[in-house]
């Protein structure tokens, strides 16, 4: 409860749901209201609680579908030499009725990768299948393999088994230390299966266990970058030293379009950039 007294720690316009408005629940509701929160009181009704939890899953399933589609668009754009990022930028000029989503190396965290699969498992118990969940899982979970295949293409004739690949960022989103279900984990596994020597740098994650491999975050320096065959930008932390990377890495594969408009000595390929 100490965080309630830290006005910088919590956004005061947040909504707090109190499930069960007994004696303790009412006191909590009054406390949050006095601190400026919007409070929703919910009776401890089994059906209502189930609906609340299903609503959370519904939101994550919508996000999963949107990310799957934009990831598939990135694959399509690579195949037909269009730039998905320019398409997104053009679509974003529509002033209403459009939500922007961006492609990337996959999905991560404890919600979006998990909730749809849980729903699909539950549906099977009732003899029902969801085509959309199956398709989105196929595309989103397949992004690490697609990126691996892209590297095979761009680094040829050198096989991946003779390469050192650095992954920048293993957290599932920028500026946090959480790597649960991170797409970077699947990317490391995919590259390991091809025999690549995989290293990583993440200012928030000092070490990482991927299967039998214990990895330690390497310091970014001119030497470590120049000794790689490719740097994959998997997570776009705000502290990413782009100028250093582009000055010394021979090849950069950008999954987040953070290199847009920046030049250096590196060869640069962007996911969904149509080969550029």
Topology of this protein?
Elements: E1 15-19, H1 23-34, E2 38-42, H2 46-80, H3 84-91, H4 115-125, H5 131-141, H6 143-155, E3 164-168, H7 183-193, E4 197-201, E5 207-210, E6 213-216, H8 222-226, E7 230-233, H9 242-248, E8 251-254, E9 267-270
Parallel strand pairs: 1-2, 3-4, 3-7, 7-8, 8-9
Antiparallel strand pairs: 5-6
Helix pairs in contact: 2-5, 6-7
| Separate helix tally | 9
- Ends: how far apart? 51 Å
Overall form: globular
SSE order, one letter for each helix or strand: EHEHHHHHEHEEEHEHEE
Mind telling me the CATH superfamily name of the largest domain?
Answer: NAD(P)-binding Rossmann-like Domain
Structural class: alpha/beta
- The CATH class name of the largest domain reads Alpha Beta
Q: How are the strands of the biggest sheet laid out side by side? A: 4-3-7-8-9
How many E-type strands? 9
Looking at the structure, the CATH topology of the largest domain is Rossmann fold
Instruction: Indicate the CATH architecture of the largest domain.
Output: 3-Layer(aba) Sandwich
Mean pLDDT level? 87
- Contiguous low-pLDDT stretches (5 residues minimum) are 1-12
- Rg (C-alpha, Å): 22 Å
Give the biggest beta sheet.
Answer: 5 strands, parallel
């Amino acid at each position: 409860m100490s965080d309630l007294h830290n006005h910088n720690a919590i956004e005061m316009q947040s909504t707090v749901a109190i499930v069960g408005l007994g004696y303790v629940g009412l006191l909590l509701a009054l406390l949050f209201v006095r601190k400026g929160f919007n409070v929703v009181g919910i009776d401890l009704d089994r059906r209502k609680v189930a609906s609340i939890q299903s609503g959370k899953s519904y939101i994550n399933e919508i996000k999963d579908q949107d990310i799957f589609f934009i990831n598939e668009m990135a694959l399509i754009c690579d195949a037909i030499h269009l730039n998905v990022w320019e398409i997104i930028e053009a679509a974003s000029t529509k002033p209403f009725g459009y939500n922007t989503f961006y492609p990337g190396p996959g999905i991560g965290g404890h919600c979006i990768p998990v909730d749809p699969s849980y729903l699909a498992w539950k549906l099977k118990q009732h003899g029902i299948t969801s085509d959309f969940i199956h398709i989105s899982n196929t595309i989103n979970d397949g992004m690490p393999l697609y990126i691996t295949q892209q590297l095979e293409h761009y680094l040829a004739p050198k096989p991946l088994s003779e390469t050192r690949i650095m992954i920048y960022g293993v957290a599932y989103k920028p500026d946090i230390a959480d790597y649960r279900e991170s797409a970077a984990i699947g990317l490391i596994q995919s590259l390991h299966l091809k025999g690549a020597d995989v290293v990583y740098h993440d200012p928030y994650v000092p070490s990482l266990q991927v299967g039998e491999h214990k990895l330690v975050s390497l310091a970014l320096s001119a030497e470590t970058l120049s000794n790689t065959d490719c740097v994959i930008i998997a997570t776009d932390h705000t502290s990413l030293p782009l100028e250093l990377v582009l000055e010394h890495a021979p090849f950069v594969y950008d999954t987040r379009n953070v290199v847009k408009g920046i030049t250096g000595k590196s060869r640069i390929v962007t996911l969904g950039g149509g080969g550029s």
